[in-house]
Amino acid sequence: MVGTLVSIVCSVIGCFIVLRGMSFLADAIAHSMLAGVIAGYLITKSLLGSAAQLPAMLLGAFIAGVATVAMVGFVTRFSRVKQDTAIGIMYTGIFAAGAFVVSLKYFGQMIDIDIYHYIVGSIVSVTKTDLWLLAIVTSFVLSVVILFYRPLQLTTFDPIMAASIGIPVLAVEYLLTACASLVVVSGVQIVGVILVVALMITPAATAYLWNDRLDRMILWAAVIGVLGFWGGFWTATFVGASAGPSIVVVMTAMFLGSMVVAPKYGLLADFIRQRNTVPQEVMEDVLGAILRSKGKSVAISSVLKNVNDPNPRIRQAISMLARQDLLDIDGEMVSLTDDGRFQAKRLVRAHRLWEAYLEKTGTPAKDVHEKAHVLEHISDVATVDYLDDQLGHPETDPHGTVIPPDPERLTVGSEVMASQLRKGFRVEVVQVGEVVPAGSVEPGRVITVGERSDGGLGWSFIVSENESFTLDHQQADALIVRILEAPTM
Asked: In the prediction, which pLDDT does 109 show?
């Protein structure tokens, strides 16, 4: 009964410890508890005799745990030392203080309890008093978790938001610390000061591998904790070993097994996921190959020839693209959907802009295509826009092939810089910058984009049959227009 209760309460409170990254702090509380046990024992033996020693020792252990947390917080806040370092200093110092007192001759003669029992625990020596104490602690801690579940959840995952809606984050943290200290104190009788941490951490960590929701994680942790306890206890009985270490060994084995077979976060699932995952580069290469092919539909065999990758991965990429509604598959023929054509144009545009950039930087002509093929996958909007602007919005790549215009921005109704337009766009002037020559055009005027001039460095605009004007790159950037008609590209 005691083992079942302590497994449940340790596992439940352990979920919050694990999610908050407080595992080391739980270890510190367990270690520092020894000093509280000794202090409580010595005080009551000196003043009250032996009748009240057990409650006093437990109270001393609880106070020592809370004091450890408070001192860690104090050191972290008022010094340059970080929290993990402060924990290491405080818990070892308090633990050593307890051991120091025990080693003194005067106090050593007064202590006639089995300190070793508090370190390694003994499940077979649990008394009815321990059972009642643990029942009270379990009821209290589980009640706290149920009543304050929402604040505990919010402060665990997003303390800033919790504070912004009025939750006292610091008070909730101290409440959690107090519950953790109570759980550590009650768990000492089962597996001792050192191994009680495993009861708090291991079942919770195991449940974390199987669940994405806190409520389910708490339930799974409780079940795993109970199964681990009973498995370890009966293993110890069967082989004649100590119960405490056996319980922890079984729980650790359960964690390692879960780490391998957990359906979403296990190593096996990760291996299968990686094996079935097609690199984004391969999928983009497939889109580009289909766009570059003549005709709306392309044979899959043609795609296999044009994409430099193992055939199984290409077929897998085609299937994934179809599931994403980027491709339509009809037998052995594939075609781009509207979304697929949009993505393919972005990729081809990035490739040809990178080719123009590489040529401008002096890359040998024989290496331009291959290097651009690698760089084309860096196709985020900001990077491609920067390249386009630095190159002067070129219309063709070094091979004379047309660079597709921006498929996202150059749509009817969009407001863009005139420098981004190609021949045939019909637009309305929205804003005229100061660098645009006075009298060239005024807001509200409808104009048509003409042929580039001066080797691509001049933007021609037709106002009427007998009226036109030309702008350089800077001036075209300063002319903001709204697209009324867009030619087919």
From this structure: 61
pTM of the model: 0.60
Residue extents of the structural domains in the chain: 2-263, 280-331, 337-407, 415-485
3-state secondary structure the chain: CHHHHHHHHHHHHHHHHHHCCCHHHHHHHHHHHHHHHHHHHHHHHHHCCCCCHHHHHHHHHHHHHHHHHHHHHHHHHHCCCCHHHHHHHHHHHHHHHHHHHHHCHHHHHHCCCCHHHHHHCCHHHCCHHHHHHHHHHHHHHHHHHHHCHHHHHHHHHCHHHHHHCCCCHHHHHHHHHHHHHHHHHHHHHHHHHHHHHHHHHHHHHHHHHHCCCHHHHHHHHHHHHHHHHHHHHHHHHHHCCCHHHHHHHHHHHHHHHHHHHCCCCCHHHHHHHHHHCCCHHHHHHHHHHHHHCCCCEEEHHHHHHHCCCCHHHHHHHHHHHHHCCCEEEECCEEEECHHHHHHHHHHHHHHHHHHHHHHHCCCCHHHHHHHHHHHCCCCCHHHHHHHHHHCCCCCECCCCCECCCCCCCCCCCCEEEHHHCCCCCEEEEEEECCCCCCCCCCCCCEEEEEEEECCCCEEEEEEECCEEEEECHHHHHCEEEEEEECCCC
Longest CA–CA separation in the chain, Å: 114
**CATH class of the domain at 2-263:** mainly alpha
pLDDT at 245: 80
Same fold yes or no, 2-263 and 415-485 = no
Architecture of domain 415-485: Roll (2.30)
Spatial neighbors of 343 by CB under 8 A, at least 6 apart, are 284, 287, 326
Q: Does domain 337-407 have CATH number 3.50.50.60?
A: no
Q: In angstroms, rounded to a whole number, what is the distance separating the alpha carbons of residues 403 and 235?
A: 71
Structure tokens at 489: 């590209």
Tens-place pLDDT, residues 398-445: 878 788 777 777 788 888 888 888 888 889 998 888 888 887 888 888
Q: 10 Å Cβ neighbour count for 330?
A: 8
Rounded Cα–Cα distance for residues 22 and 116 (Å): 26
